[in-house]
Amino acid sequence: MKDTARTSAPRFSLYAASLLLALTSASAAAADAGTGPFGVTAFTVATARSARVGALFPAGRRDHLRGSHFCTASVVHSPHRNLIVTAAHCLGGRTDELVFVPGYRDGRAPYGVWRVGRRFLPEGWTKGRDEDSDVAFAVLADRGGEGVEDVVGGNRFVTGTATGATAVTVTGYPNAHEAPVSCTNKPGLHSRTQQRVECPGFSGGTSGSPWVNGDGQVVGVLGGHQGGGATADVSYSVVLGAEAASLYRDAARDP
């Protein structure tokens, strides 16, 4: 699993860590725009669009965020403007209160700290931890009458797209860093129900990272097979289909 639920979560190799530190902001900007270079991981440039991705934290750490994020999530468009998507294994089994920090960097919350409310997990996950059901949504409480989407915007959650038709940009928060990383590459099918993408450096903490295509649509969520990947260099996502679409509809209706 690419979160902190298990101590065996893969960490950065020395190669991947040095690669990240050596890359220029120009490379990161290119990856964030979804135009490449393909298969290169770099720290994410802070932009209005990248602020839609954030980290999950235990609520008890809301005043001391540094070093306590455990998964990644992102804001998706919904009628009530209050919805995030992540991996089911990031929320399933947790009974503690959580918060979401969009655009989190270096212990700071530039767009506020948002309380995680009702959680929506598919039946395939709640009944059998089916890796083909490893996607989840959560509703965030408003702050001052505003929803999180009013503050940072949201990408559209789209199901039924053809895997590999376009490249995707994956953005997530490795446990080893206090800022997000991004990588753009073209995904491929691992099986009928799972897709994979080759991007170095996506280790523990990156579960739930959105896969965003060139149209600004979330077409994958890092998770699924092997909890998202047994190594930091290959990541997986459920092929988003009917179950994910139904789950989104249920979550989007929640006020």
Automatic annotation (TrEMBL):
PANTHER family: SERINE PROTEASE (PTHR15462:SF8). Residues 1-30 form the signal peptide. Keywords: Signal. It comes from the Bacteria. GO terms for biological process: proteolysis. It comes from Streptomyces curacoi. GO terms for molecular function: serine-type endopeptidase activity. The keyword Electron transport does not apply. This is Serine protease. The keyword Signal applies. PROSITE patterns: TRYPSIN_HIS. InterPro entries: Glutamyl_endopeptidase, Peptidase_S1_PA, Peptidase_S1_PA_chymotrypsin, TRYPSIN_HIS.
